[in-house]
Amino acid sequence: MYTDPEKKVSGGDVKDDNELESESTSDVATDEDQVYSYREQKAIIHRVDRRLVVMCGFLYCFSLIDRGNLGNASIAGMTKALSLDIGFRYSTIVLVFFATYVAFQPLAAVLIRKIGPRVFLSTISLLWGITVMGFGFVNKYKDMIGLRVVLGIFESGIYPGIAFLLSTWYTRYDVGKRFSVFYIIGCIANAFGGILAYGFMQMDGLGGKAGWRWIFIMEGLLMVKFGKITVVVAVIAFMAMVDFPDQADRSWRFLSTDERDFIIRRINRDRGDATPEPFSLSLFLRPALDFKLWVFALISFAIGLPPYHFKKWSWFQSRCFTMPDCSSGMYRHTRKVSYPKIAKLIAQFVLAAILIWFSAYFGDRYHVRGPVIIINCLIALIGLPIMSFAKSNGVRYFGVFLLTAGSNANVPTSLAYQANNIRGQWTRAFSSALFVGFAGMGGISGGTIFRSQDKPKYVPGVSAAIA
């Protein structure tokens, strides 16, 4: 069995070397500090929250908007314009994104540590924004495939990079709530991204371009251009994003050297891995021998499959990857959308946000993750067949609520579950890439098991997701 030289421990119980063996791993011991009072400590941590967690959620939100506009554009006319309804063309476009998205995640996890989050995340934000804009000028199906491949490369760094970064800043039983807030901000993309796309659809005919093209062009502009040459999101990310704890004092108007040292002391009291070891390929790849990391990866795959591929919740729902046509039973394709219907669509994410936060709070408060994941899985498992097979649209929509809440609540919970059971920054880098990569493999599977010939029920795909 693999033994991590950075002394990874299991079960969330951290003991490391003579110094840490003399420390209590209780919350009280973690909050004890020789320089700052408890109140001062909380003020510093909340400052980190406001800067780091919000900025990570902001970037992830834009990532989901850009990634999810494929389904919106498909329903707005892209499928007909590019003849994507022939054979497996639409599924192929979905599939190729996840191929590079998964393949480049280990490299991205190394680069964010070596280059630094500010430069790395702001750069890929700029590059994926430019790529998304290019979608609006595509005239051939094969060109769309090429751009989707490139988009997968650039977006491969955002999710594992943020998961890695957040896990290095917080103690084991503080990280769950931070993962949840970051993910809730990302859920805003699900709730409002499609509404944004609907607004851009109204530009149909402007400049001689179809509405589906404006979805890509305008959402790409959100990431790339404002005014003349200002790169909005990329510049904001470069200025506001913070680095890893050992380099936090280099971030713009953030922590002082003494405050940085406090964060490092706090992390070392909890698990002793605030400072990374020098990089080597063997050190980075050695965690692959740990069977437990592959179990976490399989959990990620299972959790990721339903939310990736059951986006028949609305015709303008973001991340509507493989089944945009499924919405016809619940929401008819129309350019006029009532405000009550929009409110209902947003409401499902309100419930999801409540369950996400409660799961994180309960897990952090009582130091438990596994049972929370099981309960959330049961909620999603109840909602999935109801949404898929119920005859009444009202009942199906109830299933949507359950599936949305249960599946989304498990994403930050499972991230925290993994983060609580590993030590060492290069181990965290590898495991974050592996965890998110397997969730992306759920995207690959969904691109193949939800076939157009199985509509409208998609029984094989639904059965696979339930299993």
Describe the structure.
The chain is built from 19 helices and no strands. With 467 residues, it is mostly helical. Helix 9 packs across helix 17 (393-419) and helix 14 packs antiparallel against helix 17 (393-419). Residues 1-26, 225-231 and 311-338 have low confidence and may be disordered.
* Number of strand segments: 0
> Per the principal axes of the C-alpha atoms, what is the gross shape?
globular
What does the main sheet amount to? none
**From the alpha-carbon coordinates, what is the Rg to the nearest angstrom?**
22 Å
Brief characterization of the structure:
By secondary structure, this protein is mainly alpha-helical. 69% of the residues lie in helices and 0% in strands. It has helices at residues 17-21, 27-31, 38-81, 89-103, 105-115, 117-135, 141-155, 158-169, 175-201, 211-224, 232-240, 257-270, 281-285, 291-309, 339-366, 370-389, 393-419, 425-449, 459-466.
